[in-house]
Amino acid sequence: MAKLYLKFEQAVLKEVPLSQGVVTIGRLPDNLIHVDNLAVSGHHAKVYWDTDKYVIEDNNSLNGTFVNNRRVSKTALKDADVILIGKHTVTFKDEWHEDAGPVKEHSAPALPKMEATMVLDTKKAKEMIAAATAGAAAAAAGGTKASASEAPQAPARERTGTLTIMEGKTDSPSYVLSGKMSVIGKSDMASIKLKGFFAPNMAALINKRDNKYFIAASEAKIKVKINGQEIAGQKELNEGDLIEVASIKASFGFQE
Q1: Strand, coil or helix: what is 182?
Q2: What is the pTM of this model?
Q3: Do the bridges between strand 161-167 and strand 88-94 make them parallel or antiparallel, or are there none, so unpaired?
C-alpha cells in the first residue's frame, strides 16, 4: 500500500495510507494532512489516484508545491518522491515497489533478473540460469574468498554544507545547512532569509542528498548562477562555488 509521511526536519508527524480517494493537504483543519504554517495555503494541494498512478496537484497555492525541488502544478508520484509544503515535507512511499527482504537460509537460488524488454533464445536463457545456480551453490559451499576490490567500502564521512554571504542583505552573515532542505527567500519558511522589498518569497532551494548538496531555482523566472554561469534545473554544489541568486552572492563550502 502506498503511504504519505508528513515530516518536519527529521521527525515523522503523521502517516497517511493512500487508497483511491483524495488526500488534501493544507493549513485549514479540514484537510487530511493538516500543516499549521502561514506559508501553507488553506487548501494547498491534493494527492489522488489517476487511472494507474498517484498524482499530486497544486490548488493554486500562494507559495507553490515542489516535488524533488521542482515546482509543479500536477505530476505523477514515484516511490521516495519528496514533496515540499511550506516548511514541512511529505514523502511518498509506494511500498509495493520496495525491495524484497533477504533470502532465507536453504531457500532456492535466485534466478537472474531480466528486463521486461529483453528477448533471449532458449539456449542463452538456460546458460544464464545455469550460471546463476552454479554461483549460488559455490557460495553455499564456501566458495572462494572475495578479492580486495570486492571488500566492503568504508562509508563516506558525513559532511555538512555552509553558506557564507559575500554580497547582499540577509538575516545572518553565514549559515550551516544541516537540514535536508534549505530555502533561500523572504518568506517565513526560508532558512536563508533575504531582506529587501523586492526580494522574492522563494528564490532557490538547496537539497542535501547522498552526502551531496544540490541547488535549483524555485521557479523558471528566477535565475541562479554558479561561478558566473547560469544553471538550468538542479546543480550539484562543490567546495568554493560562488552562488548568485536574487540579490545575494554567497560562497558554498563544508564544515571542517
Answers
A1: strand
A2: 0.44
A3: unpaired
